[in-house]
Amino acid sequence: EVQLVESGGGLVQAGGSLRLSCTGSGFTFDDYTIAWFRQAPGKEREEVSCISSSDSSTYYADSVKGRFTISSDNAKNTVYLQMNSLKPEDTAMYYCAIASTSNRGQGTQVTVSS
């Protein structure tokens, strides 16, 4: 069974940092691209970043470029999202997913106070 479990969310002040983790099981981690999405109430889902586990190529949304860094540890089947210089508009439920599939985790809440 494919599983993705996120952790690391929380409440932080504007300008602060958080590191999210996404640990996968039930699939060969190296074969897939893992993406981080976020969705705030009343807003559309946004793909924040993704990383190819095979060649470590990455993508960042313009809204997070320069502030967020995605990385992967294939030995641990884990993808990280380091989020720096957080802004109130980063507040959302963040979840990871295997790109181009319906497999996603339950999400972790990130709240940034002003």
Describe the fold and architecture.
This protein has strands at 3-7, 10-13, 18-25, 33-39, 46-52, 58-60, 68-73, 78-83, 92-98, 108-113. With 114 residues, it is mostly beta strands. The strands form 2 sheets. It has a 6-stranded mixed beta sheet with strand order 2-10-9-4-5-6, with no helix packed on it. It has a 4-stranded antiparallel beta sheet with strand order 1-3-8-7, with no helix packed on it. The N and C termini lie far apart (40 Å).
Provide a concise account of the structure shown.
With 114 residues, the protein is mainly β.
Distance between the termini: 40 Å
Give me the secondary-structure category: mainly beta
Radius of gyration: 13 Å
Average pLDDT level: 95
Q: How many DSSP H or I helices?
A: 0
How large is the share of residues in beta strands? over 45%
Which consecutive residue ranges, at least 5 long each, have pLDDT under 50? Answer: none
Strand order of the largest sheet: 2-10-9-4-5-6
Oligomer: single chain
Kindly state the percentage of residues in helix. under 10%
- Quick one: biggest sheet? 6 strands, mixed
Order of helices and strands: EEEEEEEEEE
Shape: globular
